[in-house]
Amino acid sequence: MNQQDFDPIGWAVVDDKARGVFRVHRRAFVDQNIFELERNRIFNRCWIYAAHVSEVAEPGQFISRDVAGRALIVNRDRDGRLHVFFNTCTHRGALVCRESRGKARNFSCPYHGWTFADDGRLVHQPIPASYSPECNRDGELNLREVPRFDEFCGFIFVNYDAEAIALADYLADAGDYLRMASQHGAGGAGMEIVNGTQTYCARANWKLLQENSADGYHADTTHATYMDYIRAREGAVLNLYSDKGFGRVRNLGRGHSVSESIWGTPWGRPCARAMPSWGDDIKAEMEAVFEAMSARIGRERADFICHGDRNLLIFPNLVVNDVCALTVRTFYPKAPDYFEVNAWALAPRGESQRLRDLRLRNYLEFLGPGGFATPDDQEMLELCQKGYQAHAGVEWNDISRGMLSEDGEAPAKQDELQMRTFWRRWRDLLAGQPV
Amino acid sequence: MSVRTVTRPEVEDFLFHEADLLDNWRLEEWALLFTDDGEYLIPPTDTPDGDPRRDLFLVYDDRHRLGERVRRLGKKTAHAEFPHSRTRHLVTNVRISQDAEGVQATCNFVVYRSKNGVNDVYPGHSVYRLLPQEGGGFRIRSKRATLDVDTLRPQGKVSIIL
Questions:
Q1: In this predicted complex, what is the ipTM?
Q2: What is the DSSP letter of A39?
Q3: pTM for the structure as a whole
């Protein structure tokens, strides 16, 4: 197979249900043409996570960040309305917002001084007399809003396709899991992004991180040292949870999936599953959180949220892992072999200082570029990417695990249904099917 | 508590010794430099002045976790550091101040890390709270290593000790 013949639509994914064989061609991780197709047919058409409402809670508050290859401003204007603008002056293009967060009543371009109000209106051009009144009669020189944006349970998404389907439809059954991630905490006061962003990267293809983020099969090997750490700290608790546990993967539609369990993992959860080493006071406080959540949203749902773990994958690039902490992680490729990650801790607003401290400690025991686990994940992704240099000699990744039982009642967490769910969607969108 | 008066060269010698332990992967000895309530912190790159109890850090180790970090890095299954990367810690611009509680030392650092054909650079500055020992030397009560980078790119991770 030579470069010209490569047709990602026709054969990058082998999906043979009868034989129970699922394969992905390794060219999908290294090919520049695929990278560009992904940008046009996935990132420019899907709903992409941009920010959380807590980051722009107050009138005047703004954040600026890159989202799927565009510099954006997300802000709340002085009247409390949410906006998402392209961060580029309509005059000659410079970024009009150079700070990553803050409060502003207007955004002034540093190049020639064009100034935009917090609702996007162009309110000032230096030496205005030289401009024709026609110049901005229909508002075309106002700061430009992204074609679509919407909020779902506090999660703000953008879409660069004006014709996109509604966000709630796009999220399909993943919507209820995002709702769960918004229902933590005793008070019902909503959620907030904790200050402090983990901005990192990996020298690997972005799809490897989506595969990795809910991979139930790699934990014992990739994260052996993390398991050692928990065992050293907590003693027998590892088996305690495993014996009670069950785990499954669900296809949530439109490429989204979740890997979930109740009492199925060896770590503690800041909402609200205490570990022995945390002590009786914390345990009592967590039980009170559980009771308050039960009163608010029902016992069964509170049990599922507090005592379970969920690795939620929203196609194409949002991961909400509700595990040893609640993390929001999004990533975007800059090249076939390099992607950038932004990750945050999401937490109940009004959480006690003691629980917040514990949440942050617990987050960092596993998660993030200085944690006991994430660096090893990154290493695995980079080792895979290195291995793909030989894609002409060894062509296929095997993602067949559990395939013969994937339509059954509860595909196991260690199976790879979540990856097949992703790849089937990827294949369909790259082939030009509608989102 | 009465504390003997210390000099900057004495603190520099200690910091150079620490850097040497790290570059030679003598991490168990490095951990022993810390007091029983010692801590090791790396703030997030966008909140360098943050508080680990309120803000999401990169590293927020109490003494127990710091010891476990070192044990982890000694294992073949600490994949990000197997085989161990080569590192070189440069420590400069040392300043000290002293009060009844002990010694505060600040320094600038650059750490070079090389692994898998990739060379990464970690520039930053550290603040130490040091407890002078009877008869010389120090124990570390707190080490806060702040990375002077906008984002952790292209380094991607802090799998080594800064």
A1: 0.95
A2: I
A3: 0.95
